[in-house]
Amino acid sequence: METAKKRVLTGNKAMAEAIAQEMENDKNVFVLGEDIGKYGGIFGSTQGLMEKFGPERVLDTPISETAFIGAAIGAAAEGMRPIAELMFVDFFGVCMDQIYNHMAKIPYMSGGNVRLPMVLMTSVGGGYSDAAQHSQTLYATFAHMPGMKVVAPSTPYDLKGMMTSAIRDDNPVVFMFHKSLQGLGWMDQLDYAIGHVPEDSYIVPLDKANVMREGKDVTIVGIQMMTHYAMEAAERLAQDGIEAEVIDLRSLAPIDKDTILNSVKKTHRLVVVDEDYRSYGMTAEIAAIVSEEALYELESPIKRLAIPDVPIPYSHVLEDFVLPGPDKIVETVKQMMDEA
Amino acid sequence: MTKFEEKQPSVSVDKLMWMYEQMVKIRYYEDQMVEAYTEGKSPVFNIGKGPVPGEMHLATGQEPAAAGMMVHLTKDDTVTAPHRPHHHAIAKGVDLKKMTAEIFGKETGLGKGKGGHMHLFDPQAKFSCGGIVAAGIPHAVGAAMANKMKGKDWVAVAFIGEGAANAGAFHESLNLAALWNLPLIIVVEDNSYGISIPKTASTSVESNDLRASAYGVAGAYVKDNDPVAMYKAAEEAVNRARNGQGPTIIEIETFRFLGHFQGDPELYRDKQEVPGLRARDPIMKLRQQLLDAEHVNEPELEEIEARAKKEVDEAYQFARDSDYPKPEAALDDVFTS
Fold first, then answer.
1. A-chain residues near B44 (CB < 8 A)
2. Phi, psi of B250, deg, nearest 5
């Protein structure tokens, strides 16, 4: 009997494959951004595209984010399907007017008469001493503002499937990819950055969370690196007889309330883990949803793990202190179970 | 008067000697940083490992811009620098020990380990830098404004790469500085690449000094990474600014001997390019000029070189000997008390 060997790719190759397949399917799809051509994207998300599609559809831009993101908006309004890369999400500061006052609002203000079928893809995340201006996720900053879908896939499979969905979606989609999950040779080699990716094109929806692990004792909601840390924590907790259910949020906006609520109704405990700032963030949003809609299901207070409202420090001892990780998750869950 | 000064009476050989020392110090500092950065990152390169983790943008080959400008500045003049800041910091007189400790993430660093190599702040030296392209230009506009409001003849200098001249902040800042006649100088270090993108693919004009006329400011171009030509262009710009005659853009053709950052595979440039640039090393050029001027002899130059290296070695030793911050210190300094 023959065993089919599963095809595996890194996160960035999965993304690049999705973009390439959509570029083949639809001549309106094109990519623009800094160092996305010959370099293939600083984090590899456009590798091979220049060779395949040439400089007319893979455009290296000057360091002019307002101009090229604004131009993507203009092109999208004309029926093109641009994919613009903002190299680091932290750089949003120089071009946010185009993103939230224009990309996010034009469809609404036009009464739906203008469509902006574009993807703004950007790298997020820290953990490698890149300090305060290159390590943020800013999940909530983008998810807070209406008019953009904001997704942050955690696995190579989802990176490809959600990128394909994002390109085909008629709305502006902010597509956040985590640097540590790209499978880059020059970062920590993480098992999570490599995974099964079918060659044929497929889609993963932009509005569904994913139950990564089932459990009956506690629900842990995470996204990207925090999902993987939650999975590590869950394995360790299982050795102590605690069965955690891990939800990979995947999509920040729209948020999949049902998956979270259904899980909490089963486990009656909730921990939310976020690589973003604590206050006014994703942890607060999910805690609020559960408080509003499932408060009486809870057997203990909701716990939140996030960056304690400080900019990301450079020195690794300081960064390790502020970033949530498996140890902190295990400790938090155990405290919760003890209190019960 | 030396032979050099006979030929070029506007140039002080003492000041060139100062520049030479700074350039040697910068080069040696960056060479040591290559070593320190590589520690813990081999055989497998991992950006997060070793005593100096994170991104590392080195200025090897770009020394003339910093030395040729800073030779005309005092401690009262302000300098802002970009993500590749070591040469500016060193020539501006930033505390070398604290700067190095910061890069090593130690509590004795300029920012107690919170900033790192792209985010160095030394208020005593009136120096700052940052990781966002072109963002330091408006800060220099503000410093120039403050100088003018205080009635001082202090100037502000923003160093940027040629890639930053296509960001909105460059154009808005120039208009504002010209409108308000501020003592601002922008030094554009054209090292030919914005990461991998050659200037020809990013910039609509041949050099950014040509953009000066659009804002009604002065422009100057320094070719071939030439320290003496940089000295002259900077002197003129500084005098103009101090005398209330407004901003200047200086573009210098400079050389990036290393990658955009350490670990950059540099697949976008020809393998022969860097050896060609190294053959035109500005430090060797200035050294020869000083010897030709018969102002110094070989042993005297060696003494300068030894002094510069000693200062750098001591700074690295200080950084290595310093302690890491306590983890909970991450929570301090969000607000000043």
1. 185, 189
2. -110, 125
Q: What is the pLDDT of residues B16-68, one digit of tens each?
A: 999 999 999 999 999 999 999 999 998 899 999 999 999 999 999 999 999 99
> Do residue B196 and residue A39 have CB atoms under 8 angstroms apart?
yes
Last residue of a domain, one of A167, A196, A225: A196
Interchain CB distance below 8 Å, A90 and B132:
yes
CATH 3.10.580.10 assigned to domain B3-319? The reply is no
- The answer to whether residue A316 is catalytic is no
Q: Do the Cβ atoms of A94 and B325 come within 8 Å?
A: no
User: Which chain B residues are Cβ-neighbours of A66 within 8 angstroms?
Assistant: 168
Q: Is B334 on the interface with A (CB under 8 A)?
A: yes
Helix (H) or strand (E) holding B121: strand B121-122
Whether A202 maps to a domain, the answer reads no
Mark which of A145, A172, A196 sits at the end of a domain. Answer: A196
Scored b (16 or more CB within 10 A) or e, A287-298 reads bebbeeebeeeb
ipTM: 0.79
Q: Which pLDDT band holds residue B163 (cuts at 50, 70, 90)?
A: very high
Residue A77 lies in a domain: yes
Question: Is B247 in CB contact (< 8 Å) with chain A?
Answer: no
A219 and A86 housed in the same domain: no
Q: Residues of B numbered 263-292 whose beta carbons fall under 8 angstroms of chain A's beta carbons: which are they? A: 263, 267-268
Same domain assignment for residues A191 and A310 = no
First to last CA, chain A: 51
Separation CA B252–CA A224 (nearest Å) = 43
Structural domain for A154, as ranges: 8-196
Judge if A177 and A235 occupy the same domain.
no
Which of A87, A179, A315 to mutate to test binding with chain B, by most B CBs within 10 Å of its CB? A315
Distance between CA B32 and CA B321 in Å, rounded?
16
